[in-house]
Design brief:
CATH superfamily: Vaccinia Virus protein VP39
Order of helices and strands: HHHEHEHEHEHEHEE
Helix content: 40-55%
Radius of gyration: 16 Å
CATH architecture: 3-Layer(aba) Sandwich
Number of helices: 8
CATH topology: Rossmann fold
Shape: globular
Amino acid sequence: MKPLVLEGLEDYARVHSSGLPEVYEALRLATLAQTSSPQMQVGHVEGRLLKLLVQLSGAKVAVEVGTFTGYSALCIAEGLPQDGELHTFDIDPAATAIAKAHWARVPWGSRISLHLGRADLLLPGLLAGPLAGRPPDFAFIDADKQGYIAYWDFIVEAMPKGGLIVVDNVLWSGHVLSPSSPDDHAIVAFNRHVADDPRVESVMLTVRDGMTVARKTG
């Protein structure tokens, strides 16, 4: 992933954002050492933004599609109240093993429940079962790009009015301006889908690789 702003400015933003508990640096280093695609991990600035958005929204039940090594899950869970819960979905047992080891190091890690398997297959059962009557009021999507529209539609439909949904990689290293690969075209189609969705009001932010933040309005 190529940075969309000057590297020096990324560092400047990080230094001038709130600090992090030690577990985040440990997880960053473990991801660098133990995975082949460490750039998939959200960074300091994006992570602090996720935490703040959860706190500002007052969310109590969150879902995440795409766990990887668990950095974003830690940020979301840290922003939840003590009785809050995050349900995160991923298909990679090796990456999520790193996540679980680091979640266990902090009190708010107990708010996270990992669901290993495809989110499109597991989410319906979760919403009809353990979360029946308690739909998610916060969601983060950061998974396979060609599945974004399906994840979006299912989650937005399940959310109550006022729910907040955040989506990562919506600028896709700038390839949205000149798409060529299937993933490029998938992100372009997704961004248009969100812009045209009458159920939400949304804003696209140039944070890291691009984030869309949307609030369900109807």
